[in-house]
Amino acid sequence: MVFKALVLGLLFGLLAKETLAASCPTILNSTQRALNSTNDVNLCEQFQGKVLLVVNTASQCGFTGQFEQLEQLHNQFKDQGFSVVGFPSNDFNQDLGSEENTAKVCFLDFGVTFPMMARSSVKGQQANPVFFEIAKQSGVSPKWNFYKYLIDKNGAVVGVFSSGISPTDTKITQMIEQQL
Fold first, then answer.
1. Which pLDDT score is estimated for 17?
2. Which one, 51, 101, 107, 134, has the greatest CB density within 10 A?
């Protein structure tokens, strides 16, 4: 009897995981390594059903100060099903050095608590799966660091914001509120 219950429990667990994978939006259908870590993040498990602001970052860019506003935005809406997700990249030669240095800038210098993925490419054929899908959906690859992409609960890109737009600009905050 106990064995039967255990087998049924495992079977239901596997079916639930398959259902999750089958219903996962393409934009979240990957596993990424967390910044300066050996831990992997299954984006579907972590973010499915949430509104996201996906940002390509660089630790030595003139826009690096936006980490403060990104953190403010994350804290303002995180309890309502929202998250900022950062993707460091050296595609524009502004995130040089080690991933450890990138993590120091994010976590120690700016106090970032939102999820940061490992450094990866965010444009062209080498783009990680998230940014490949962002470009496919929106037609806009990052032209510089700190491009911001608003992703709705269903995994669709619903807003694109260039580097020069502050994360706390009312255009962004109002769109987040509408999506929540």
1. 46
2. 134
CA distances from 131 to 2, 108, 121 (A): 46, 26, 8
Which pLDDT tens digit goes with each residue over 58-74?
999 999 999 999 999 99
Evaluate whether 176 touches 150 at the Cβ level (below 8 Å).
yes
Average pLDDT over residues 27-44: 95
- Strand order, beta sheet including 148-151: 82-88, 51-57, 148-151, 157-161
- Residue 141 to residues 20, 43, 75: CA-CA distances in angstroms? 28, 20, 27
pTM of the predicted protein model:
0.86
Catalytic residues: 61
What CATH number belongs to 25-179?
A: 3.40.30.10
Handedness of CA 154, 27, 124, 62 (dihedral sign): positive
- Asked whether the CA dihedral 23, 27, 33, 36 is positive or negative, the reply is negative
Give the start-to-end residue ranges of the domains of the chain.
25-179
151, 27 in Cβ contact below 8 A?
yes
- Six-digit token string for 99: 């991933």
Determine how many CB atoms are found less than 10 A away from the CB of residue 107: 15
